[in-house]
Design brief:
Two copies of one chain form a homodimer. Chain A is mainly α. Chain A is elongated. The termini of chain A are close together.
Chain lengths: ~150, ~150
């Protein structure tokens, strides 16, 4: 089986998963630092999705880290398909959450620009972190999808 | 070469492309029927993306229709990769536009519910059409991506 960089069990995959975990956690942190987020559906949605992405990516980061340490790739087609589908769904949801948050922040900035700069910059950082998390997630998903036909 | 339903040049692909064209046109129409859309970045973004998706999907629908009529599949790896990448990028942009529009409509409905029902339902339909267009676009992209390793 080809050792494709970025697929499950490689060092690149471990780095991508770690990045995903860190960016998702940062996004959740910046979003929920205040309590104002539950006024907007998009922000609640973002918090929900990040609450799904963090355990998923953290678990897979642990699996990758273990594979890198013991230098053994444990790839079964069934598990790989579950990982690809899970990554796919979560990356779509993350992108949706990031776009929704970014556009709501944009509306808030224009409609009430006076009080918003205090909190809107936090929401903006949160959306940016979610975009970075989406980038890592879709990259791992593509690398693993590429691997499926060779199994 | 396997005749995968949904890949370039098949009848299923023609139907998906046609659906994509119709949904994108409907989305653009519902969004730009009034002139109020340019007050919000998300709505302008949606109009821009739909202006890109419509010619792309219409052209590929024509190509698929021609292939179905003459019963000949003209698949070159280079062209297929361009189609997959183009579909991919456009489907991500469509999803982003649909989510942004939906979340902005949600904010508008809650913040000024009195005057919004007149126009907000139009924007809601536009977002729904964009979601359907995204669904068709990502389906064709996945089918064609699946075909690439067999070339």
């Amino acid at each position: 089986m080809a050792e494709l960089p970025g697929s499950v069990g490689t060092c690149a995959s471990f780095c991508l998963r770690l990045g995903q975990t860190i960016f998702s956690s940062a996004s959740l942190l910046f979003m929920s630092m205040g309590v104002g987020f539950y006024n907007y559906t998009a922000f609640c949605y973002m918090v929900t999705i990040m609450g799904l992405v963090i355990p998923w990516s953290f678990t897979l980061a642990m699996v990758d880290g273990y594979s890198v340490m013991v230098k053994r790739l444990t790839r079964q087609p069934g598990i790989l398909i579950i990982i690809v589908v899970g990554d796919w769904v979560l990356s779509i949801l993350t992108l949706a959450a990031a776009c929704s948050t970014a556009s709501v922040v944009d509306v808030l900035l224009y409609s009430n620009g006076l009080y918003c700069p205090k909190v809107c910059s936090r929401y903006q950082v949160s959306a940016a972190m979610a975009f970075l998390s989406w980038f890592c997630s879709s990259a791992t998903s593509l690398f693993n999808l590429w691997l499926i036909p060779s199994l």
